[in-house]
Amino acid sequence: GDKIVSIEGKKEGKFEGRVVLPSFVNAHTHIGDSIAKEAYVGLTLEQTVDPHTGLKTKILQSSTKKELVSAMRKALKQCVALGVTHVLDFREGGVEGLKLAKAACEGVGVQLALFGRLSKPPSKQRVLSNERFSEAELEELHKVCETAHGIGVSGANEYSDRMLEQIREVAKTHGKLVAVHCLESKNTRNRLKQVFGKDEFQRCVTFLKPDIFVHMTCATRKELALASKTATLVCCPRSNAALANGFPPLREVLKHKGALGTDNVMVNSVDMFREMEFAYKILVGLTKKPFDDVKSVLKAATLNARPLLRLKPLCVDGDANFVLLNLKKLKPFWNLHAAIVNRAQEENVEMVVKQGLVVKSLIRQDALTA
C-alpha cells in the first residue's frame, strides 16, 4: 500500500550501514527551462528571467514542444535518481505549458505539483494603470486552476493591485494554492512603490495573500515572521548566489520551518544534496557563527514543504515516501545529519519509494525478501 504500517530499526543485519530518510521535496523549481542549462552565465536576474524580455522567455518561445518535453523529462528522471519524490514547479506557458509538463512527468516516478500562470503576462502599461484582468485572462486563470496545483506568480511587480486580488479570488474559488516570487533582489522591493504606495512585500501581503513565499532574499526579520504566520517560506540559496542576488536570511527562515528548492534548471541542477550543503556552509560563512542545528537544514529539504502537498510525515500510517541511503562509504562520521547534508550524493541513494511504490532500487529483489 501507500501507507507505512510499522517502523523497526536494527544496527546489524542486511541493511547495516544504511538509513531510511524522508524523501526529498524540492519546494521550488522551474523545470521548463531545462532546455537552457547555463544560458544565464554573465547575465543579471532581469536579463535572465524577465517574463517580457528575458533570455529564458526567448528560448522557451523558440523551442519545439518535443525539445521542451525531452529536456524536462531528463531533469525529472534525475530528481528520482537523487531521492526526490515530489517537486513544486512554477510552470510557464498557460494551460499548454501545464500539459507539456504533465507529458514530461508521465511514468517517471515523481509527483509534479504544478503552479501555472497566464500564457502571456499583462503589459507593463496595464499594470501601471492598475487595470483588472480581461475576461479572456480570467477565463484562462480559471482553466489553469482546474489543471494545476495552484497559481505561480512571477512577482507582484508583474501585476496591478487589482490583478493580484483577482489571482487570490480565482485560486480561492478552486481551493488551490498561490505561490509568489518575493524580495528576490534589492531591485524588486521598491520598483513600483511610487506607483502603488506599497513595496513588493506589502502588496503581496495586502492583495495577493499567498500560501508560499519564494526567495525572500532581502526580507527583514519582521517580514519573515509576518509571512510565516500564514504561508510557507521557500529559499533557493544556490540560485540567489548564481544570479548575484545575495544569500537569503536562512537562519531566520529555518526558525520558521522554511523549505529549500533548487529553482531554475537553467541555473542549477535539481540536486537537493548540493542545495543543502551549499545552504549550510554559506549560512555559517556569512554569519561567521557556528551552526549546530544541521537537522533543520535536512528538514527544509525533506519535511517542511510536505503540508503544502497534504503529505503525512514518515511515521506509522504516514505516507510511504522515503529513501534508503547507503552510508558505508561515508564512515566514519561523528554526526549523522551533518554527514548526509555535507557528504551524501546520488551514489548513496540505494532506493527511492514514492507512495509505497519503488521508483528506484539498486538492491537485488532477492536481497529485499531474503
From TrEMBL:
Pfam families membership: Amidohydro_1
Family matches, as InterPro entries: Amidohydro-rel, Metal_Hydrolase, MTA/SAH_deaminase
GO molecular function, one term: hydrolase activity
Source species, domain of life: Archaea
Domain Amidohydrolase-related: 19-358
Name the UniProt record assigns to this protein: Amidohydrolase-related domain-containing protein
